[in-house]
Design brief:
Length: 375
């Protein structure tokens, strides 16, 4: 006979173990995790994520006896819900502590009752503790209890466990590491791509800037070396030609005759147009390797590399002829005088002066003619 009472928030189980033929008398508190009244579903509670259970219980009057803690797990693979004898007995017998601490029972120390395995005739694979569908919890007197009166005080039963299993933590850490690695790779990739795009656009900017600078440099060079009115080289521009070492170099000064009268009669603007047309006419009728420079006013210098004095003379005569027969604006009649020279063993200045002197002679001799300066 047994009674269960509550006192100061503690449960007291008073048991009278009597002598009988039954070999394994016991007295127990049994807590059901399923509702017997409702439609039975075979659904208990899953305690598999817990690692320990703390049982604060003790004998009040008979201290030298053991207690049995037991869980009853139902598994439909080998048990029947309506036959509690087929629910697996997983338990342990322990000697309750005298100290105020609860008795800690690691769940892994719970064993399947060997008599139950033998009785159920189950395959060995089912002889392992299971906590996935616990239907009942039992706290009872231990083995070999002698007849007499026993009072068991139960203060609490607490299950504890890790919120995550070791495997879950490991899986989480591996996933975190993998995500970080993927994230880092992705970040690196997009950063590199961004850098590449930036570098490309910087390179493009630099290329365009360079192009602009080249254009500007050419413009500045042109401004510095070309005559703005006719587009012919100026004195500075033609200077560089003389620094090149050429074996045969001839030059000719070309000066429009009586140009002042053109200005006087038709005005300065017409004079400018005539000068532009004059430079164009000469350029169009000499070799592309020749260089035309405006020496000043209406005076031009044509530099002819790799040209003998004879060839330069012939060219001058041809140009003179073309000029005199050209159709100029306002039907202006135009002629020009030429002073031709071939470079000898002399400085460029002396060489130019000889050609200039020949031009002067052509003017003196009556204009519209070619005069050669012999070295
Ligand atoms: N329209 C125009 N006239 C210029 C320019 N540069 C010089 N002249 C003119 O060219 C004329 C040159 O006159 P001159 O040196 O007397 O020579 P010319 O009248 O050609 O006579 P000769 O050379 O002796 O045959 C001057 O009237 C200058 O004003 C220019 O850029 N534009």
């Amino acid at each position: 006979m047994a009674t269960l009472t509550e006192e100061d928030g503690k449960w007291l189980l008073t048991c009278h173990i009597v002598a009988s033929d039954y070999n394994w008398p016991f007295c127990e508190i049994s807590i059901n995790f399923f509702n017997e009244q409702e439609q039975p579903t075979g659904q208990g509670i899953d305690l598999s994520s817990f690692t320990s259970v703390y049982v604060k219980a003790r004998y009040i009057n008979q201290e030298h006896n053991s207690l049995r803690f037991q869980l009853r797990n139902f598994n439909p693979l080998y048990g029947q819900f309506d036959d509690q004898g087929t629910w697996k007995y997983v338990g342990i017998e322990f000697w309750p502590q005298r100290s105020p601490q609860a008795n800690e029972i690691p769940l892994k120390s719970l064993q399947v009752a060997s008599w139950w395995i033998a009785e159920q005739k189950l395959p060995i694979k089912y002889a392992v503790p299971e906590f996935t569908n616990v239907m009942m919890l039992e706290l009872s007197t231990g083995n070999n209890i002698q007849p007499g009166q026993y009072v068991i005080e139960l203060e609490h039963i607490k299950f504890t466990g890790k919120y995550f299993t070791n495997n879950q933590v490991l899986l989480f850490l591996i996933s975190l590491w993998a995500c970080s690695a993927v994230g880092f790779l992705f970040f690196n990739l997009s950063w590199s791509r961004k850098q590449l795009i930036e570098t490309k656009s910087k390179a493009e900017e630099l290329r365009q800037l360079n192009q602009l600078l080249n254009v500007k440099t050419k413009e500045l060079k042109d401004q510095a070396e070309r005559d703005p009115l006719t587009g012919a080289l100026n004195r500075a521009g033609i200077k560089t030609i003389f620094t090149k070492e050429l074996e045969v170099l001839s030059v000719m000064f070309i000066d429009i005759d009586y140009f002042k009268s053109v200005n006087d009669r038709y005005g300065h603007t017409v004079g400018d147009e005539v000068l532009k047309a004059f430079a164009k006419l000469i350029s169009n009728n000499c070799r592309f390797t020749d260089f035309l420079a405006r020496w000043g006013g209406e005076e031009f210098l044509l530099v002819c590399p790799n040209t003998s004095l004879k060839d330069a003379y012939d060219l001058a005569q041809a140009l003179r002829n073309i000029i005199s027969h050209h159709q100029w604006i306002q039907d202006i009649q135009l002629t020009a005088s030429f002073g031709v020279a071939q470079q000898g063993d002399e400085s460029p200045t002396a060489f130019i002066e000889r050609a200039d002197k020949a031009l002067y002679d052509a003017k003196v001799r009556g204009r519209n003619q070619v005069v050669i300066s012999e070295y």
